[in-house]
Each structure stands twice: as C-alpha cells, then as structure tokens.
Amino acid sequence: MVSVRVINVINLSSETWRELIDYYGLNDYDLKTLYDNMDFFEKYADEIVHEFYDEVMKRGHLKGIINENSTVERLKKTQVWYLKTLATDVIDDDYIAGREKVGAVHAKIGLSATWYIGGYSIYLRCIRKRLSHSDPHVSFSIYEAVTKRILFDSAIILEQYIGDVMSKNEAYIKHMTNASNELIQSVDQVTAIASDFANSATVLAEAQGAVVESASTLYDKSTAIDAMSKLVIEIAAQTHMLGLNASIEATRAGDRGQGFTVIANEIRKLAERTKKSSEEINTSVSELVKYINSINQQAEQTMATSEQQAASAQELSALIHGIEDIATRLKQ
C-alpha cells in the first residue's frame, strides 16, 4: 500500500453535483482509499474486464449491439481504462464531463440505461471476489469506496441518458408541432378550394337544371309548331282540292265562269305555295326537335354529373374538416 498526501480531491463547480455526491456519501477519504490501493486495480483490471465480457456476451441483444458498433477487444481496452480511473484521486468538472460523454455514447448506440447500470453490478461482484483474499478491514474500505464511486458514476450516466431522451422528445414534439401547423395551413387552403369547388358544382348543377327545363319547354313548343305545320299542310291540301273543283266547275260554266276560273287558279297556286312552305317548316321543325332531344339528353347527363360533383365536393369538405380536426388534436 502507498500513502499519499491529503488534498481536496472533490472539486465540483455545480451545486447539484456537490449535493448529489454528498448524498451518495462519497467523500475525500473514499477517494484517498481508492488512490492508495491503485495497485489493486492495476493488478486485476484485465482479469475483471475479461470476466465482465464473458458474462455480457451471453446476452444476445448485448452481443448484437457490440458487434454492430465496435469489437470486444476495443471495448475491453476502454473498460480496463475505466476500472483504473476508479482509483484516481480527483472528481472535478472534467470527470463529470467524461462520464457524461460515456453515457451519451451508450445512449446513442441503443444500449438501455437498465442494462448499462446492470454492468456495474457485474463489476462489483468481480471486485468483491478478488477482495475476499485481502485483509478484511482494508477490503471493506476499498469495497465501500468503490461501491459509492460506481453508484455515483451510474447517476451521472443515468442523468445523461434522461437528458438525451428528453432532448430527443423535445425535438420530436417541436417537429410534430411544426408539422401540425403546416398540416393545418394546408388543410385550410384545401378546405377553401373544396368549398369553392362545392359552390361552383352546386351553381353548375342549378344552371344545368335550368337548361334542362328550358330545353324541355322548347321541345314542347317545337312539338306544337310541328303539329300546327301539319295542320296547315292539311288545310293547304284541302284548299288545293277546293280550287281544283272550282276550276272544273268554272270550265263547265263557260264564259260566265272565266273570272271564277282565274280566282280558282290563284287559290290553287296559293295552296301549293302554302303546302310547300309548310313542308319546309315541318322539315325544319323536325330537325329542330331532334337537336333539342340531343341537347336535352346531354343536359340531363351534365346535370347528373354536376349533382354528383356537388355531392363529392361536400364529402371532400367533410373529410377535410375531419383531417383538420385530427391535425388540431395532434398539435394539442
């Protein structure tokens, strides 16, 4: 055993860490005890680390994390260094920062705090096994001091784990809030567009309904005109027949019927012109009726499509409102 000077070995600027180290009962005397027995850690560090990894590699998920991120040989060197640092005689801000860095690295590779702290239990068992051959009083002092120090180290590591998780949660919440705000803005824009579309579709459907009604009225009027033109044709035919009969009777009357013959001929000519015009009107009206029928069918189809668009627009609007509600609840 080597005795050294007594100095102020605990020197922390953080009031929180000073209170915590006092709460754990770790003091200058404990650090001096460990420092005075540095040869113990120098002697058994490799052996303890070897036994430690024999136990760790039995756990499949721990083995997977190690193989994915490093090698056992590289980690053994780091752990040998760590065991030897348990005998250092100073705990200061740099010491805290070093332990925090270790915690951040292990959190980053996905090793949970529970399994990491469980590793300290293995170290304590290995250390106690090797202290059992030493002087009981000295062994107890070393084991008590190293237990306090390991527990304090685990507190630093655990604090880093919690801080890392909280930082990630805050970043995640901020990201989700921003995404929710963007989603709400987008939904508002889509809602406005859908509302305009619904209104336009409704107006279009109403307009198409008016077109169908007008086309139907026009069809009825055209049908009436067609009936009237047919009636005129019949009257013209009868008039022509009357003119023909009158001409025959005028011929029989001789000189006394010559004037009546002229009138009868004019009646016949007028009847023929009326018949011809009526036939042309009838032909035009028939074609007009066909066009009206076609327009009416197209208008009905368009109206049906417009009504369907209006209904779809209303459904879309309702769906968007549902999404907006979800986005608002997500933000909350």
TrEMBL record:
InterPro entries: Chemotax_Me-accpt_rcpt, Globin-like_sf, Globin-sensor_dom, Globin/Proto, MCPsignal_dom, Protoglobin_sensor_dom
Coiled coil region boundaries: none
Domain Methyl-accepting transducer positions: 166-332
Pfam families (UniProt xref): MCPsignal, Protoglobin
Keywords, ordered alphabetically: Plasmid, Transducer
Protein family membership: Belongs to the methyl-accepting chemotaxis (MCP) protein family.
Protein name (database record): Globin-coupled sensor protein
Native organism: Alicyclobacillus dauci
